[in-house]
Amino acid sequence: xxxxxxxxxxxxxxxxxxxxxxxxxxxxxxxxxxxxxxxxxxxxxxxxxxxxxxxxxxxxxxxxxxxxxxxxxxxxxxxxxxxxxxxxxxxxxxxxxxxxxxxxxxxxxxxxxxxxxxxxxxxxxxxxxxxxxxxxxxxxxxxxxxxxxxxxxxxxxxxxxxxxxxxxxxxxxxxxxxxxxxxxxxxxxxxxxxxxxxxxxxxxxxxxxxxxxxxxxxxxxxxxxxxxxxxxxxxxxxxxxxxxxxxxxxxxxxxxxxxxxxxxxxxxxxxxxxxxxxxxxxxxxxxxxxxxxxxxxxxxxxxxxxxxxxxxxxxxxxxxxxxxxxxxxxxxxxxxxxxxxxxxxxxxxxxxxxxxxxxxxxxxxxxxxxxxxxxxxxxxxxxxxxxxxxxxxxxxxxxxxxxxxxxxxxxxxxxxxxxxxxxxxxxxxxxxxxxxxxxxxxxxxxxxxxxxxxxxxxxxxxxxxxxxxx
Length: 470
Fold this sequence. Notes:
The chain has helices at 10-19, 29-35, 63-76, 174-187, 205-228, 248-259, 268-274, 276-290, 295-306, 431-439, 445-461, and strands at residues 2-5, 23-24, 46-50, 56-61, 81-89, 92-100, 104-110, 113-118, 129-134, 146-147, 151-153, 157-161, 166-167, 192-196, 233-236, 239-245, 316-322, 328-339, 344-349, 354-356, 361-363, 368-373, 379-385, 391-399, 403-404, 408-420, 426-429. It has 11 helices and 27 strands. 34% of the residues are buried. It is globular. The chain folds into 4 domains: 2-85 and 242-255, no CATH class; 89-238, CATH 2.40.50.140; 275-309, no CATH class; 316-469, FomD-like (FomD barrel-like fold). By secondary structure, it is α+β, with helices and mostly antiparallel strands. Helix content is 30%, strand content 33%. It starts with a strand and ends in a 9-residue tail after the last helix.
């Protein structure tokens, strides 16, 4: 499998991928230097790059490459969360129109999956079957964005329906651009134009002609299936997409992978994911390491430099409770009451009435939620009190270890809670949700078994003693 990797996790992922049989293509200069990888302009089977929030990566590639990357990640990174999109990106589907509004027509492309087609692209509503393609906008979302402007994507070229010949702007050599343009005019099939991709600049005429021949065969397949296939069905397969999140333990493991290749400050990937001044200071510090300065001295200087960027006791922070689905719940602002090597404590005030399901008591505006954990621990204990100070019960939320960013406390909720009621009854909730996540491939079986064992141990150990003070 050939992989192209970019972003803040590149060195660590390159090491991991090489150890698991991947070939790295189109490497950056830094990666070529660190690993001794030669130039290789072959097209990748999988492209991996940073998520916008730097909490992980996005991968797009063949079904086989995505599956292998997923298994590699789960085997090596304990708490990694992978969210595969089962829809084929750039895939062409025959779908059923199932509804519309003023902005979009809704098309069912697979059982349970409905996409949105912009209203201006929809044909006259004299039939309920339609040929659509999955766009790369909003990849991973529940409702994919569709188009009727079809294209067939190859390694070196893209056939675009009812289009002219074009050449990637990444190909800057004027002579090569003219050569590809002329070849495109010669090879374009009826009603389709050829857009040459950047790797085409490095390939012979024979290779490019063979690619166009293969793409034209896909056009023929599309035409044959379009009339005979039933809706909803996939007519032409595209690529596949996966979102990967790297919580606390994954970042720590990748620090080790990176450190085996190049001088690395402890916490490198956490600091890089902070972005801004923290990330810039890290880059400067690691340049000093590359010049041979002492790791201890550089780390001490770096931590002094970034100290003011992070919250201290008494600071107001946001609490991000991230679900395994990727949804982020903002639990509101909290007061950071303690932060040191052995303890993290914060509290927030409940803003609205409701119900604490696991505790069987009413939630009232003005209640206080007092949370505590320890660095590296896989749970947060939250005691709930009325505004008069009466203890209402305890939720022990099982989650990835807490990370404290400049303005935010963040963790991945692992679905399972241990609830302790005022009558000392202890109950484990939602283990089936975590099991379902494992069955979907979102988490590994190893993580599932660990969390199950931890929850059972917590429930057993907290059945006795002063539960309110746990």
